[in-house]
Design a protein that fits this description.
The chain has about 80 residues and is mainly α. It contains 4 helices and no strands. It has a single domain (about 10-75), classed as Orthogonal Bundle (Arc Repressor Mutant, subunit A). The chain has helices at about 10-25, 30-50, 55-65, 65-75.
């Protein structure tokens, strides 16, 4: 059985989370899931919106989400 190789994005996220936990210096981590998701999701949406020249229908298709979900995320993250 072959192990699935981690892609570059996953490797970067893995390193960032490990560095974050190391930097806590004994403090108890909280809300890591929400922190990571929002840290990844906002730039992902911003870049995809730039890539599609602001076309929400195309951006939603590229992201693999529906347009209403995209609109909610744009509002949540205050993306212009």
């Amino acid at each position: 059985m072959n192990a699935v190789q981690e892609n570059e994005i996953a490797s970067c996220i893995r390193k960032a989370i490990l560095d974050y936990l190391d930097d806590l210096d004994g403090e108890k981590p909280t809300q890591i899931y929400n922190m990571v998701i929002s840290s990844v999701e906002k730039p992902l949406i911003e870049i995809t919106m730039q890539y599609t020249n602001g076309n929400q229908t195309q951006a939603a298709e590229v992201l693999g989400i529906n347009r209403n979900t995209l609109r909610q995320k744009i509002k949540l993250y205050q993306i212009k």
